[in-house]
User: What shape does this take?
Amino acid sequence: MNFWLVLTVNSVTFGGLLFLLSAGFSLIFGLMRIPNLTHGSLFMLGAYIGATFVVGLLGFKLNFWLAAILAALAVAALGALAERLLLRRLPGDQLAQVLVTLGLSFMAADFCLMVWGGDPLSVATPDGLDGFARFGVMVFPFYRLAIIVIAAMVAIALWLLLDRTRLGAMIRAGVDDPDMARVVGIRVSQLFTIVFALGAGLAAFAGIIGGPILSVYPGLDQDMLPLALVVVILGGTGSLLGSFVGSIIVGFIYNFGQALLPELAYFVLFMPMLLVLLLRPQGLFGRHVP
Amino acid sequence: MSARNLALSLAFTALATLPFWMPGIYYINVGSQILFYAIFALGLNVLVGYAGLVSLGHAGLFGIAAYATGYMLQLGYGHSEAILVALVIGVASMALYALLSLRSTGIGFIMITLALGEILWGLAYRWISLTGGDNGINVPTRPEPFGYSLTVPTTFYYVTLIIFVASVFMVAVFVRSPFGAALMGTRDQPRRMNALGYHVWMIRFYACLFSGLLTAVSGILFVYYTQFISPQTLSLTSSAEVLLMVISGGPGTLLGPIVGAALVVVVKTVVSGFVVRWNFLLGAIFVAIVILMPEGLVPGTVRLWRLMWRKRASADGVIPAKTEPTP
Assistant: This one.
């Protein structure tokens, strides 16, 4: 009984992290039609930069949350730069987009290896959250519960942004029909930069928040990118609800798969995505086929 | 003899005599690697360049052929049986891969193939009883066709060269055939091709099988070259690398994937001996190619070459007969 409950909590926690990672990926994919293969690298960069802030840079030690926000902002700026300087030049050219995003992810991976070396970094759990919550006989780490709360808060904030603000309405219009959005006077190209920066920042934030659980190591990017893809394909591109439901499903499949069928863990992980692609190509909540 | 034919015969002569002028076994081995990766890239190019289908899981198919060879040898079969079974399994897996992925085109196709590649990698990594997991499978011996042992690097190089030339020839014939023209038609105007009475899906499916055959051939050469196969070979990075070979060289051209394969293999093996951050360099090269020569190295060079000739010709007062083809 305890085993199942712990596994469930872990699944929801991991799902929350995946949501932070994939919400941006989904929006970028939905709005710009770009398969952003740097998304795993953004996650890893955020984790490394955040970890450096926490450990201390030039004698300054930052509070964990401040470090997370600063790392997210830094990576968001990088993402905006990449969009402005590179991706902007390649509208509609998928081959070039794949080449450039893969090229950037190679560079980012090697850059991290150069600066932070090959040994994994562990990130200390933030103060005040390193304890355990007790419910009767069951024990849960506070930090995992905190991640669930943070992910839920970000989900609500994103929902408010997309559903209740003018900017959100413009983004939704861009996802549905970019040409029509341009015609009615929305500056879609500016939206591209905003959404790309937002997605990059969220991925980086997920990276540092996930640090105390996953630790930070070379190859983290390659581990996370396929997961983000699975979530987005399951949930449907450009849909916030889709990312949310997809993340939770993948969180469960990933944790239960690892625990119950270790030999077939990856098979179990990618099989539902394949089924969705075959039976409902637009994803569970997607509006159009990618 | 036109400049093009002259360049091609020079290149072929250089390849055929490579073991005589290369300064050592190490470089002959680099040559073999370039050749079998070029076969792999040629196979992927059939899909990416001529069919317009970007597959990001081809390393999985490459790995299946390699694993099949290794597994058959482990079971105690001879080399010819192992190679035959690996070819059959390779093409059969491609058929299944195509059945699933051809449901979609464009970004959808990229996603499905990526997922399929990851499934294959996951199976290789975790299905330990079959694949040995992270320890992989060792292939202790290389075949000895007609008494020539492939353990000699020069012999291995020449056998790879023969298979390489045959593959290039096959792709060249394929592209110039009516079937190749139909395939390019499905890439550019699928709906029109459909209206003209072509079975678009079937044409794509056959193209996949052809691509799968070349991929399996290169996978078998790979496993005999390294004499070892592990899940790393099937990873997303490997799939990305071969895709980058095709895109950087010039998709939809015969020479492009070969040049791309040479570029990637040389940076990975030779340059990495001098430059520690070769991965960064490789990434930077890809980004630079997209900015400077978005159509790929081979078509880009041809374009620059023509531009230069045209300038010289117009300076001489000669109007060039051929106009620049619009991209």
Q: What stands out?
A: The CA atoms of residues 50 and 68 of chain A lie 5 Å apart.
